Amino acid sequence: MKILSLIFAALVMTACSATSKNSSEKTDQENFFANQKGCFLLYNMKTGMYDKVIGDEECKTRYPACSTFKVPLAVMAFDAKVLKDENQVLKWDGRKDIRPEVNKDHNAKTWMGDSVVWFSQRITPKLGKKKFQKYLNDFDYGNKDISSGITTAWLNPPQKKGLQITAYEQVDFMKKLWMNQLPASERSMELTREITYLETSSNGFKLNGKTGSNFYDKERKINFGWFIAHIEKGDQEYIAVTNMSDLAPTDAGYGGPRAKQITKDILKSEGLW
Predict the structure, then answer these.
(1) Residue 201: which of 121, 251, 272, 266 has the closest Cα?
(2) Torsional class of 206: left (φ above 0), alpha (ψ -120 to 50), beta (otherwise)
């Protein structure tokens, strides 16, 4: 009888813990992803564990890599000597983009910071389809699918075929990048880490990362966004990945910057910003 009582108590505690966890995750969804479906992962580099997960099923769903793909593409470009260093300049061809910061010459550092699509589209043809595909396979990057074109595969909207990746796979890639575990030169990984630096918080947390944006509709009112990040302060080190999808048309702006802000809001709530 005593053994049965102990088993019953353990089952009750497990059920209560699961209920509490589900309730907490629902609250997080409501607080940080209002009018959106979303995912957030916080991976602790020191413990090898996830300290926080919001939207586990959403985090397992593949979405277009969007401009987060500039991070692995930088590693490829530096490794293959397509870009010799962060200061190498590519000339703008004069075709105007709706974002004025794109319409000028760029080097590797400003390519990453200003998220310049045309710069990426100069790199992939220089790699060539065969080498490009090999890098994707060796990096084990998402679905590795470039069948829709080597200059556009990562840019397709979420509902179309293309180079797609889950949030968990984004974490895996970022872990390898920061631990020098990608099958590429250490210099290529170091240069990539350097050009992804964004800012340091007032509390001393250094943030590296990259946004990515896309749309579900031609009117560009239903947004999709990524933010992939590395956060470090002293002996604290994390990988954070966020994605979000609008549930209805909005004028709130590009998804990538919004995913970045969501990330910072969650990090702040965790005492990591």
Answers:
(1) 272
(2) beta
Query: Could you tell me if 108 and 195 are in contact, meaning their C-beta atoms sit under 8 angstroms apart?
Result: yes
SS3 label, residue 83? coil
Which residue bears the tokens 């969501």? Answer: 262
CA dist., res. 90 & res. 117, Å (int):
12
Q: How high is the pLDDT of residue 29?
A: 74
pTM here?
A: 0.90
Q: Give dist(CA 208, CA 77) in Å, integer.
A: 19
161-187 pLDDT, tens digit each: 999 999 999 999 999 999 999 999 999
Amino acid at site 257: P
Report the catalytic residues: 67
- Model confidence over 82-100: pLDDT tens digits? 999 999 999 999 999 999 9
pLDDT tens digit sequence for 124-149: 999 999 999 999 999 999 999 999 99
DSSP of 180-239, one letter per residue? T-SSS-HHHHHHHHHHTEEEE-TTS-EEEEEEEEEESSTTS-SEEEEEEEEEEETTEEEE
